[in-house]
């Protein structure tokens, strides 16, 4: 895995956006895997700028989001459907029919999850997956203890994740307890993966992911077994890496 350390959040956002823009320019029909949360917001803002000012064209791009809360309809302000629409999709020209986000309101989660995997496969697989990382080392909502070969399924959120995400809701009690998430195995199938992390609260998870043993205790550590993964870190997120001291 490649580790790229930049001074601040703006720099990692810009550099990661350049990787996405390169992928889209070199293959207009590229299939992107997308994340929500605070981390990719700067990257999405830069993609919007590149679309507006430098004609970055998403008209043939297909997207698959990592996850969605179970029980939240698409128009709920904390749903990941709403997040993606507000923070990226309504500002760029990716066709609505090319956008895929797990349906948190499905009445048949297992069938939905199977069909999500099938749609990823029939689109040709994910070319470039964007990831954040939870403070407990999760990628998507693959919490500690998740199988490292897991596929898209319903996952119960860890207490730590509910506390971390309570900042977006009125209280921790309002954070949904379950989410539909791509599995670790689903993520590892992507041809290229970029993980972004900023801030000191991510530093121990980043160190465990990059330098710890490959273990379901930190599902991001499975990325050590992926042939083309890059971590874009600010200095605070990188602060517990041993290699950064060498
Ligand atoms: C979101 C996702 C999560 C987040 C992680 C970090 O789609 O899959 O794994 O990437 O929880 O969240 P932030 O970026 O809000 O710190």
In short:
The protein is an alpha/beta fold. The protein has helices at residues 9-26, 41-54, 80-87, 109-122, 159-165, 184-188, 203-211; strands spanning 2-6, 31-34, 62-65, 67-69, 99-100, 128-131, 153-156, 178-181, 192-197, 229-234.
List keywords for this structure.
7 helices, binds fructose -6-phosphate, 246 residues, 3-stranded antiparallel β-sheet, alpha/beta, 7-stranded parallel β-sheet, globular
Instruction: Give the uncertain stretches in residue-range form.
Output: none
- Specify Rg, calculated over alpha carbons: 17 Å
Name every ligand kind in the structure. fructose -6-phosphate
Spatial strand sequence of the major β-sheet: 1-10-9-6-2-3-5
Structural class: alpha/beta
Q: How many beta-strand runs? A: 10
End-to-end Cα distance, whole Å, is 17 Å
Overall shape: it is: globular
Helical stretch tally: 7
Mean pLDDT: 97
Give the fraction of residues assigned to helices.
Answer: 25-40%
Q: What does the model show?
A:
With 246 residues, the chain is α/β, with parallel strands linked by helices. Helices cover 30% and strands 17% of the residues. It has a 7-stranded parallel β-sheet, with helices on both faces. A 3-stranded antiparallel β-sheet has the order 4-8-7. The longest helix is centred in the first third of the chain and has 18 residues. It is globular and about 40 Å long. The relative contact order is 0.18. The mean pLDDT is 97. The protein binds fructose -6-phosphate (F6R). Fructose -6-phosphate binds next to loops.
């Amino acid at each position: 895995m490649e580790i790229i350390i930049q001074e601040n959040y703006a720099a990692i956002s810009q550099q990661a956006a350049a990787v996405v823009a390169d992928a889209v320019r070199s293959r207009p029909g590229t299939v992107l895997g997308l994340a929500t949360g605070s981390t990719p917001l700067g990257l999405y803002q830069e993609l919007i700028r590149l679309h507006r000012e430098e004609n970055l064209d998403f008209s043939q791009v297909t997207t698959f989001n990592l996850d969605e809360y179970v029980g939240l309809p698409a128009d709920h302000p904390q749903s990941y459907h709403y997040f993606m629409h507000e923070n990226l999709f309504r500002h760029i020209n990716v066709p609505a029919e090319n956008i895929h986000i797990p349906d948190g309101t499905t009445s048949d989660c297992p069938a939905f999850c199977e069909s999500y995997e099938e749609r990823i496969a029939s689109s040709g697989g994910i070319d470039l997956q964007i990831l954040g990382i939870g403070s407990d080392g999760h990628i998507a909502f693959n919490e500690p203890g998740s199988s490292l070969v897991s596929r898209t399924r319903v996952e119960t959120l860890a207490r730590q994740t509910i506390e971390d995400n309570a900042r977006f809701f009125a209280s921790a009690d309002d954070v949904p307890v379950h989410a539909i998430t791509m599995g670790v195995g689903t993520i590892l199938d992507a041809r290229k993966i970029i993980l972004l992390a900023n801030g000191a609260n991510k530093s121990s998870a980043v160190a465990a992911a990059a330098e710890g043993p490959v273990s379901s205790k930190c599902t991001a550590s499975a990325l050590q077994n992926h042939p083309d993964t890059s971590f874009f870190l600010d200095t605070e997120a990188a602060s517990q890496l041993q290699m950064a001291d060498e």
